[in-house]
UniProtKB/TrEMBL annotation:
The lineage of its organism: Eukaryota, Metazoa, Ecdysozoa, Arthropoda, Chelicerata. It comes from Ornithodoros erraticus (European soft tick). Residues 64-405 form the Peptidase M13 N-terminal domain. Pfam families: Peptidase_M13 (PF01431), Peptidase_M13_N (PF05649). This is Endothelin-converting enzyme. GO terms for biological process: protein processing.
């Protein structure tokens, strides 16, 4: 677009500019309607859809230099591209697929296993689930209606590392010693010393077994005895912890070699010798003492009390899983359960059909361009010293990226291979739940022992998520398939559209690694002072400049977020400090635009309109997310011919990288 014979980025005399601005609007009005012929270079449905959206959204009668959010959004407040609404529609389709799948009894695919799991949950087979729980208790020597041999130490180990139920201790995988393999932190399970009421015990167990009052009383007494035992162990100063080889836990107090031998035997038997005994373990000293008093030969808690306590914990856990509460199944909870237990499977059928390799590759290409530009920005930063610059560039170099699908779940074949050893989900919901819990526990320890991240410590990766996520503690960015669909990505659309929408979101997430919290973590996600003192001082001057910019926008009604600036400081900084890197990456993209009329917008103007589309209507509803970064962009002001000192072209600008 040109205005008054003046090209974007050039200036005539002040008088000429003033006259030209009065005589010509920033964007020429048009009364033509849009049809597919208007966009001859637009060959995909995505492209047509987003350009029609822009055509209906931009209000050409408003001044973009006064309030750009109004210019982009005021003509269409329908919220048609509300990201959360689209997420809900996607979830409805996934739910319908799970509901309608005709699942065979045998030879189930991974998706069919997830569908069967969901359908069995909805069918609410209370009798079958009660039978499954009784069978599980009997299998592990915990049928309290019959005399059975019972080894409490072996059960604790097996449940931790095989069955996936914490009876006494939770196992947390930690990299507290990054130079070695991951350590195992054994912490007391939060419910282990809780004492239930008799009514609570009766309510749970009466649905599972025929229970006598004396059993109810004995369970309550057993839990009370365990709590009294722990209460009698005084906390150590500063809650000190002990580090030891896993196999030596029994020797950590009183040098109990017998307990150590029984513990090691239980580890070997339960884990098929997969879990190495020399793996570093960590426990608070108080809990080491508790372990010894519970499981030494002359235990301070009787074997029967331990069995009753474990029966209660197991039944309580599976009772909740089997959805016994209420008179009918909670279908929403069933849907949540299947997405949590089959995170890469329940929605795979839908996403494999709509987010193909071409879409994922297009986003990867765009992301690489943004990363390259960010590296150049760090390389040329005028205020970073060499050490800080090197740390920043290393953080980007070492960034872990998941774009689209996780590598092990990239295709339907991959997903089926992963779940090959999971039994078919043909039995009661609770039996399916037990089988799946055991399967997921094995997969967890297979990954940990292979040196891969513990799934339980990772951010859940939901395919349907519409958010780009960054973790400073792992220096990882996640771009799930749900982001590679509208309203955040439009396959085949002009580069400016996708850089303006998804490119902006990618950079926002990345910049959380360099905001006031993220900059305290280094390239491998460890807290470290890789910013020099001199660079920290200059960094603060830069962020103070942004706060002044926000205050200026606040007085002009351009930023209207309901919470105070301090509460959203990280959000606004992440929006703004990387914006020029996205702009430069877009400008270098070799893809051209052969589009017809789109509200007479130039390709650069289309980029900035796209930058703000997500903040229209009810999608996110914060004009600040649109206006604030652009108030800081001279390129934006030049693109729309905004006078110096106008609302969208304040001075001075805050140049970050």
């Amino acid at each position: 677009m040109t205005r008054g014979g003046t090209k974007a980025g050039t200036r005539g005399t002040k008088a000429h500019e003033d006259e030209s601005r009065r005589s010509r609007p920033h964007v020429r009005p048009t009364t033509r309607t849009t049809s597919q012929a208007d966009f001859p270079g637009c060959t995909t449905e995505d492209c047509q859809k987003i350009l029609r959206r822009i055509q209906s959204s931009v209000d050409k009668n408003l001044d973009p230099c006064s309030n750009f959010h109004s210019f982009v959004c005021d003509a269409d407040q329908t919220g048609a591209y509300n990201a959360e609404d689209i997420k809900r529609r996607v979830l409805l389709q996934i739910r319908h697929q799970l509901d309608s799948e005709d699942v065979p009894a045998n030879g189930q695919t991974a998706f069919q296993k997830s569908a069967a799991f969901y359908q069995k949950c909805k069918s609410f087979d209370k009798t079958g689930s009660a039978t499954a729980i009784r069978g599980f208790l009997t299998e592990h020597g915990m049928d309290i209606t019959a005399g059975m041999s019972f080894d409490p130490l072996a059960i604790v180990v097996r449940f931790m590392f095989v069955e996936g139920i914490s009876l006494v201790f939770d196992v947390i995988v930690t990299n507290i010693y990054p130079q070695d393999s991951a350590s195992l932190f054994l912490s007391l399970h939060e419910d282990f010393t809780s004492v239930p009421s008799g009514n609570e015990v009766r309510t749970v167990l009466s649905d599972i077994i025929q229970i006598e009052q004396n059993i109810v009383t004995n369970i309550v007494d057993a839990r009370r005895n365990i709590k009294m035992l722990l209460d009698g162990i005084p906390p150590t100063a500063n809650e000190s912890f002990i580090v030891f080889p896993l196999s030596k836990l029994g020797e950590m107090t009183e040098n109990d070699t017998d307990l150590s031998a029984r513990w090691t035997k239980a580890l070997l038997n339960s884990t098929d010798s997969r879990l190495p005994g020399d793996r570093r373990a960590i426990m608070f000293q108080r809990y080491v003492v508790l372990f010894h008093r519970l499981f030494k030969l002359n235990s301070e808690i009787s074997e029967n009390d331990l069995r009753l306590s474990f029966v209660w914990r197991t039944a309580q856990y599976l009772y909740g899983a089997a959805l016994f509460r209420g008179s009918k199944p909670d279908e929403d909870r069933c849907f949540l359960d299947v997405r949590q237990k089959f995170p890469n499977t329940a929605s795979s059928k839908f996403f494999f059909s709509v987010v193909n390799a071409s879409r994922v590759d297009a986003v990867r290409t765009m992301f690489r361009a943004i990363i390259d530009e960010l590296q150049d920005s760090f390389r040329n930063s005028p205020w970073m010293d060499d050490a800080t610059r090197q740390g920043a560039r290393m953080k980007v170099t070492e960034l872990k990226k998941t774009i689209g699908y996780r590598p092990e779940f990239g295709t339907e074949k991959d997903v089926n291979a992963f779940y090959r050893d999971l039994p078919s989900m043909t039995r009661s919901y609770c039996k399916n739940y037990i089988d799946l819990l055991k399967f997921n526990t094995k997969m967890r320890w297979d990954r940990v022992l292979a040196g891969l991240p513990d799934p339980e410590s990772q951010r859940p990766y939901e395919l349907h998520s519409v958010s780009v996520a960054y973790s400073e503690k792992s220096n990882e960015i996640q771009v799930p398939p749900g982001v590679i669909l509208e309203p955040t990505f439009f396959f085949g659309a002009p580069p400016g559209v996708n850089y303006g929408i998804l490119g902006r979101l990618l950079m926002h997430a990345l910049m959380h690694g360099f905001d006031e919290t993220g900059r305290r973590y280094n390239a491998v996600g460890k807290m470290a002072n890789w910013f020099s003192n001199a660079s920290v001082a200059k960094y603060k001057r830069q962020t103070d400049c942004y706060e002044k910019l926000y205050r200026d926008g606040e007085t002009k009604g351009l930023v209207t977020f309901p919470a105070p600036y301090a509460d959203n400081r990280r959000t606004y900084l992440a929006d703004t400090i990387g914006s020029m890197s996205v702009t430069r990456a877009y400008q270098k993209d070799p893809g051209g635009s052969t589009l017809g009329n789109v509200k007479d917008l130039t390709k650069d103007q289309l980029f900035y309109v796209s930058w703000c589309l997500l903040w229209c209507g009810t999608s996110y509803g914060d004009p600040s997310r649109c206006n604030l970064p652009l108030m800081n962009s001279q390129h934006f002001s030049d693109t729309f011919f905004c006078d110096a000192g106008s609302n969208m072209n304040p001075s001075p600008k805050c140049v970050f990288w």
